[in-house]
Amino acid sequence: MNKLVGSLKYRDLRYTQNHPLRIPRVSLLIEFLKAMGLIEEQEIIQSREATKKELLLYHTEDYLRALEESDRCMCVKDGYREKYNIGTYENPVSPAMWRGSLLATGSSLQAAQIFLEGGVAFNPAGGMHHAYPNRANGFCFINDPAVSIEFLKKKGFKKILYIDLDAHHCDAIQEYYYEDDSVFVLSLHQSPEYAFPFKSGFVEEMGRGRGKGYNMNVPLPKGVKDGEYLYALEESLKIVKEIFSPDVYILQLGTDSLKEDYLSKFELSNAGFLKAFDMVREAFGEGIYLGGGGYHPIALARAWTLIWCRISGREIPSKINSEARQVLLSVNFEEFDEDINRTYMYEHLLDRSDGEPPRGEVKRLIERLKALFLL
């Protein structure tokens, strides 16, 4: 039972004009998969909204009330901007804020439930890892990974691994589980020395109290390509396996690590992205799969299509057919790097991987992690 949890309703639940997350994501993926003949209707589970009770597993009641009130009037009430970080350019009032977040979070819980029933599911709308219990942050209003982790705890899971491959550090997840030895957090991301969230995601942040040694950050330098990213991931997974034997894991698959994405300084090909997914599965078996960041819609649709092919056991087509190409060409999106030839994105699905060996800086980072966690 392999399922994609999604909905075309996201078309009407968009962020404000000019916001990086205004782009089509889930709806584009579904349309592209159908055009490519890579999904059947029975493989799609229609998304449901999370309930208030489910959201309260992680979020505070007053914050949820503020989101709901802001959604009702499409405005920001006095004090909400300062207290809850709602209504800023980063976290604007829009249909995506509450109703879109409810749908994305409900979908992550559906993916978790499918896993509990012996299936495998991917929720591309999930992975909103920046939202804190009582405030919005980093384009995120509801933290569906944290809600899902708490849901799994309620179901009796004692050891949960959260792996985050988004280009940006999962700051809110880290903070919430920083003193919790039942949740191991592994995050590979751009170094906060040069990237959001700037204040967290450093190597030294290993957890506190009971949670010390259960939080691993792998902050990578600019320009990381497939070879050194996969080296860092493989070595990190080895360290985790020495320390922690999870009952279940959640994998966040933000596509902003791809070279085409303009909101990160990484240079991964989608072949490298797919190999990262394969590595996690080889290390820990099947898990619960969520989306995440990703601000280039064409790169995102292609990469998540590769993930779906793996999950559903399909061969990856060599060419993008004419119908699917038209789906991609119809996206209202302006390239930021107009001088770069991106025609390959409309011709084939799987790009060539870059096997560049890790630079000394990345090797030293891994050696430091080994010294911190294994000695």
Describe this structure in words.
The chain is globular and about 55 Å long. α8 (226-243) packs parallel to α12. Helices cover 38% and strands 10% of the residues. By secondary structure, the chain is an alpha/beta fold. Strands 2-1-3-8-7-4-5-6 form an eight-stranded parallel β-sheet, sandwiched between helices.
Rough outline: globular
Runs in which pLDDT lies below 50 for 5 or more consecutive residues are none
Main structural class: alpha/beta
Largest sheet: 8 strands, parallel
Radius of gyration: 19 Å
Assess the beta-strand content as a share of residues.
Answer: 5-15%
Strand order across the largest sheet: 2-1-3-8-7-4-5-6
Share of helix, binned: 25-40%
**Pattern of helices and strands:** EHEHHHHEHEHEEHEHEHHH
- Mean pLDDT metric: 97
Taking the alpha carbons of the first and last residues, their distance comes to 42 Å
List the total number of helices.
12
Number of strands: 8
How does the SSE layout of this entry go?
Elements: E1 2-6, H1 26-36, E2 44-46, H2 52-55, H3 61-73, H4 80-84, H5 96-116, E3 120-123, H6 144-154, E4 160-164, H7 171-176, E5 183-190, E6 215-220, H8 226-243, E7 248-252, H9 270-284, E8 288-290, H10 297-312, H11 322-329, H12 360-374
Parallel strand pairs: 1-2, 1-3, 3-8, 4-5, 4-7, 5-6, 7-8
